Amino acid sequence: MQTSDLKIVSAAVRKDIVKMLNLAGSGHPGGSLSSVELLVSLYFNHMKFNPKNPSDPDRDYFVLSKGHGCPVLYAVLAQLECITGDELCTLRQAGSRLQGHPAKDKGLPGIEISTGSLGYGLSIGAGIAAGLKQTKSPNRVYVLMGDGEQQEGSIWEAVMAAPHLKLSNLCAIVDDNGLQIDGATKDIMNIQPLAEKYRAFGWNVIEIDGHNLDEVDKAYAAAKAETNKPTAIIAKTVKGKGVSFMENLAEWHGKAPSKELLEKAIAEIDTALDKEI
What we know:
The chain is α/β, with parallel strands linked by helices. 43% of the residues lie in helices and 12% in strands. Strands 1-2-3-7-6 form a 5-stranded parallel sheet, sandwiched between helices. It has a two-stranded antiparallel ribbon with strand order 4-5.
């Protein structure tokens, strides 16, 4: 897809995120909105993923380590027609396949593992990547993490193991929006300088603006071109991106918009798109 097309998809994903959260009355808008361009570029331009056969053995694997950000994944899967728009309206409802965190046992296409408790997605992704290496499979593994999640010790076990195992088929993506549920990451437990830490462990590190689709596209291409080590994409993002009253506010980590605020959010997203294309 061209950048202009990706912007249209990104706007549609943002609108679906706020709509489904409004209907659910709960959920996590901030970190879902900050990850939109990262997932749209990945699924539409880089990851081997067949919407008509999500379990294709030749697929690439995506692990949403920051499981609370599942609204963005569900919205992207809806754009790929893996799930319907009607099903998006069932987010967090009893019996729905769209649980508040990804649940593999619900049979939702594109969900590789159940996630929710933070910190273990990168280890699982490294394990999948190691298995693919052993079988000489060309498939790749992508893991999306939050920046607050970098405070988990298990992340750093995987960060240490992946270069040792030469997992060049592994790409870790950090949604570095600077905020977590209790406030700024620098105040809760400072994780910076994050890029330097990954480099020190032997990773290929790429720093980007996570909302600049051209930069995101080039980063994924560079990750695929790396043949000796795993790649970490440190994406600087804005929590609640695209909705002015949510942007850079920790209070929107896990709070659903009212009907009035939903209408305002959708209007802002539409206006921003009109200015960009």
